[in-house]
Amino acid sequence: MLRFVLQRLLATIPLLLIVSLLVFSLVLLIPGDPAFQLAGEDATPEEVEAIREAMGLNDPVMVRYVRWLGGVVQGDLGTSLFSDQPVLDVLLERLPVTLSLAVTAILISLAIAIPAGIITGTRPGSLADRVVTVGSSVGLAVPNFWLGLMLVLLLAIRHAWFPATGYVPISDSVSGWWAHIVLPAFTLGLAAAAILTRQLRGAMVDVMDQDYVRTARAKGLPERAVTVKHAFKNAAIPMVTILGVQTNSLLGGTIIVEQIFGMPGIGQLAVASVFTRDLPMIQGVVIMAVVVAVLVNLLVDVSYGYFNPKVRPK
Amino acid sequence: MSDVAAAPSQSGTVRFLRRFRRQTLSLWALGFLIVLTLLAVFAPWVAPYDPLQQDLDHVLEGPSADHWFGTDELGRDVLSRVLFASRVSLLAAVQAVLIALAIGVPPGLVAGMWGGWVDALIMRATDALMSFPPLILAVAIIAVLGPSLTNAMIAVGVLLSPTFLRLMRATTLSVAQETYVEAAQSIGCTRGWIIRKHVLPNVVSPLFVQISVFAGVAMLAEAGLSFLGLGTQPPESSWGAMVGRGFRYIAHAPSLIVFPGLAIAVTVLALYVLGDGLRDSLGRETRQES
User: Fold this and answer.
1) pLDDT at residue A313, as a whole number
2) Residues 6 or more apart whose Cβ sits within 8 Å of residue A62
3) What mean pLDDT is reported for chain A?
4) Closest CB to B136 among A18, A142, A289
5) What is the pLDDT of residue B3?
6) A121: three-class secondary structure by DSSP
7) Is A30 in CB contact (< 8 Å) with chain B?
8) Cβ separation of B143 and A259 shorter than 8 Å?
9) For residue B248, what are the CA distances in angstroms to B51, B157, B240, B244?
């Protein structure tokens, strides 16, 4: 198992290299003189020169890339053009907010999708099935920022059941954290829940037709055990793949959700950095996001082995 | 990705239309989209008010007989603004999908047709592109190019392109293995001719399914980016930008965000339903591809 994990880790290195090249190239995409553009319209020549110096723009591209990559590998993501703080420090300070939001969103989406997928998948064509299918289409089409605003309007403004904005670290107060995270996490997780439900429903319908399910029934297992132990565990395998893909878009979705609920996470930082033209910070955000996404997908691959012994490496 | 149906003949199209006619829900969705497009095109004649006309005596009002969707912070008619904003939202979605097609289709064809190291290189780059959390990549591209609707749609187009690329590559690969392509090659037909004559006809239908779904995805992405202030810039307004501005008045005039938000949700739903209907109307073999 350890060898499998190591192999997968090694396989991500070329991918991360291409990603680093793409992230680095962002600077090259800036129309005109990057130092001039990043400094803003009313910058003095000295300020422009300072940015040129800070970002090392006077050197050839390849030299800059290698130097930048060398720094990134050692955890040096550069310095914010806006606050002069090391980019990595700012990111690490905000990462717990975004991660707790994303993880809670995934858990909520699973808590919706697993029962919904099992119920509809074992009773295709039933009323529950049709209601859930329509519901999941709607869940996919509703923009998440709009859903978030509606929840704020109904549950935080009309009825003060939840705080409308802000974030409380889980280490300060578990109940405070929960109250602040529920609405944003639900907002973020609903689209993933819709996709996962569809996926699980389809897989359950297929699996319930399999011989081993018939065998399990024939030997007199209660229907509940057949569904959960035999059918669900097999139907969950494709769902794990989708979960990996969904985690990726969930991470992107935090940008919008953090903005609505005033959460001081990485997504909020990303938007603020666009307006301050803080390119090193943006590059840091992208790299951090990709690293998290790659790690999640690695976890997904490894968890295949748990769900499906057939793919376990010999 | 297995084999694909042979090039659609006349009867294929007829079969497709006959199947599609039975998809009641998709027909409704198509009808809605046609009406919406007409409303957008004829907005100046349909809208009850000038979308820019201010009326400071009637600001932030709820729905009424005079103003069906209420008024905004400057007393402008929200219904008229939603109608005019539909032009921006619809055009933005079309723009993003066209950009995605332009970026994704040619390299997909090349990768599928040429194979070898060209294919490997293109696919590795695609994998890298797909490993970015989508919205974060879009924000990064906008950070570099500057916030504007066109730049936002370029970013969304880049995000959507890998799926088109993979679809093109998979179809091209499967067609390239067919005996009739081998026959064409053996009598000296060029790759360009084979692409035009055999590959493109086969890819059109799955591509249409994907276009319909991606128009919805692009519309959601545009709405999200404009909501953040990274897409449509004032004085232009899209549905997402309307929700973004209405955010400030959420406690006083919820209709400012309710109606443009509903417009996005219903339109995106219609595009998804249409996509589902198109997919179900394709031949069984092609259906498994998309």
Assistant:
1) 58
2) none
3) 85
4) A289
5) 45
6) helix
7) yes
8) no
9) 20, 30, 14, 8
Residues facing A140 on adjacent strands: none
Q: What percent of chain A has pLDDT over 90?
A: 18
Helices (H), chain B: 10-21, 24-41, 43-46, 78-114, 116-130, 134-145, 149-176, 179-186, 191-194, 200-227, 239-246, 255-281, 284-289
Give phi and psi for A74, each to the nearest 5.
Answer: -90, 10
Separation of alpha carbons A247 and A261, rounded Å:
20
pLDDT at B288: 44
Domains of chain A: 16-73 (no CATH), 98-308 (1.10.3720.10)
Q: Report cis status (omega within 30 of 0) of the bond before B162.
A: no
Q: For residue A113, name the pLDDT band (cuts at 50, 70, 90).
A: very high
Amino acid present at A29: L
pLDDT (average), residues B83-101: 93
Prediction ipTM score: 0.84
* Contact predicate B240/B227, CB 8 Å: yes
Q: What pLDDT does residue B290 have?
A: 39
Does B235 sit behind a cis peptide bond, omega within 30 degrees of 0 on the bond before it? yes
Most B CBs within 10 A among A255, A266, A291, A296, hence the mutation to make, goes to A255
Q: How confident is the model at residue B102 (pLDDT cuts 50, 70, 90)?
A: very high
**Are A146 and B142 in contact (CB < 8 Å)?**
no
Instruction: Count the neighbouring beta carbons within 10 Å of the beta carbon of residue B180.
Output: 13
- Model confidence at B287, pLDDT cuts 50, 70, 90, reads very low
- Output the CA–CA distances (angstroms, integers) from residue A66 to A59, A73, A144, B47, B174, in the order listed: 11, 10, 39, 57, 40
For residue range A124-147, list pLDDT tens digits in order. Answer: 888 888 888 888 888 888 888 889
* Local structure of A271: helix, strand or coil: helix
User: In three state form, how does the secondary structure of B224-239 look?
Assistant: HHHHCCCCCCCCCCCH
Q: Both tokens of residue A180?
A: 């602040």
What count of other Cβ atoms lies within 10 Å of the Cβ of residue B226?
Answer: 30
Average pLDDT over residues A271-283: 88
Tokens 């109608």 -> residue: B83
- Residue A79's φ and ψ, nearest 5 degrees, are -120, 140
CB proximity list for A222: less than 8 A, separation 6 or greater: none
CA distance B86 to B241: 11
Q: Which domains does chain B have, with CATH numbers?
A: 2-289 (1.10.3720.10)
> What is the C-alpha to C-alpha distance for residues A286 and B212, in angstroms, rounded to an integer?
29
Query: pLDDT tens for residues A46-71?
Result: 888 877 777 777 778 888 888 888 88
Residue with tokens 């109606």: B259
| pLDDT at B99 exceeding the cut of 90 | yes
Q: Chain A contacts of B230, Cβ < 8 Å?
A: 271, 274
To the nearest whole Å, the CA of A81 is away from the closest chain B CA by 13
Which residue's structure tokens are 């829940």? A193
For tokens 């639900």, name the residue.
A186
Q: What is the DSSP letter of A310?
A: G
